[in-house]
Amino acid sequence: MANNQLIAAASECSKSLLPAIGGKAASLGELVKAGAPVPPFFVITSDAYRHFIQSNGLDHEIARLQNTSADEALKVAAKLRHQIVNSPFPTELEEKLVDAFKGLTSGWGSVAVRSSATLEDALEASFAGQYETYLGVRSDGEFLESVKKCFASLFTDRAVTYRMKMGLPQDSVRMAVIAQALVKARSAGVMFTVNPLNGDPSMVVIESSWGLGEAVVKGEVTPDKYSVNKISMEVLEVYRSRSKPVRYEMLEDGTVVRKDNAAEESWEASLSLEEAVKLAEMGASLEKYFGAAQDIEWVVDQRRKFPENIFLVQSRPVTIKSTVSTPSKQSDLNPLDRIINTLLIGVKV
């Protein structure tokens, strides 16, 4: 990626560019480089953020946050948030943003706009959850406003106070922003490329439920379970739950709603055997690429046909602690809650 690049394509993103694209975007970029099907996205880089701040003369306001009392810093931060949201984009930057946004929405309709701070998860100073995400963004105006709100979220009272507590300069973190196509989930779940109950490396274990999976987290349904041999890609065991009376779905405007399933859907498998095998193949490929067993979050888009309907949204290493040493981990975690968190909030390295 070139220096001072304002927008980075998904193919350009990796952990080596974390200062420019932030932790969430870097994680997504690693999945893309691994050949995984990731919902399309682009990143508004930290250089674009800096260009916006400097063109509006706001770097001087940020400097005022240093070497002042906590009360005064919060007053300055409140003023900064207002100024950021109400300041214009430089013309060149706005044109680039709108063009990229239109290219993304032309095939997907609506997008999620997510913050990706450049020090996220670094130096034990985790900023996860302190910044903003906006769902169901459909118009140019909404998009530009959402980006500015993500910029402004660097200066919430919580974020400013946290940096003061950690002894970090207030200008030490810059904001990158991800614009990513919203997947309309038919099913979602988690996949382990090792048996999470006994550590068997020859098995891929997949859990699945209708919609976003929030019903699993709330204890309203029991997920389906698939066990696939990693070598032969044979489905060895299927547990089809008969307790899936409800689902949670995301509307085009980003609202999550609870819906009752039809009687037959309550016991119908939420994932086909061919989808399970395809997921297992993807999982095995990621395990080989990353050199370690993986814990993978996935989603099936109801608007697309197999195999183009399967997307991966996060992958992390499986640890011994999370599998063999704690056999009940799989059920205790309610693993599909991580799917909802990823789809509604975003991922982090």
UniProtKB/TrEMBL annotation:
GO terms for biological process: gluconeogenesis. GO terms for molecular function: ATP binding; metal ion binding; pyruvate, water dikinase activity. Residues 20-326 form the Pyruvate phosphate dikinase AMP/ATP-binding domain. It comes from the Archaea. Its EC number is 2.7.9.2. Pathway: Carbohydrate biosynthesis; gluconeogenesis. It catalyses: pyruvate + ATP + H2O = phosphoenolpyruvate + AMP + phosphate + 2 H(+). SUPFAM superfamilies: Glutathione synthetase ATP-binding domain-like. PANTHER family: PHOSPHOENOLPYRUVATE SYNTHASE (PTHR43030). This is pyruvate, water dikinase.
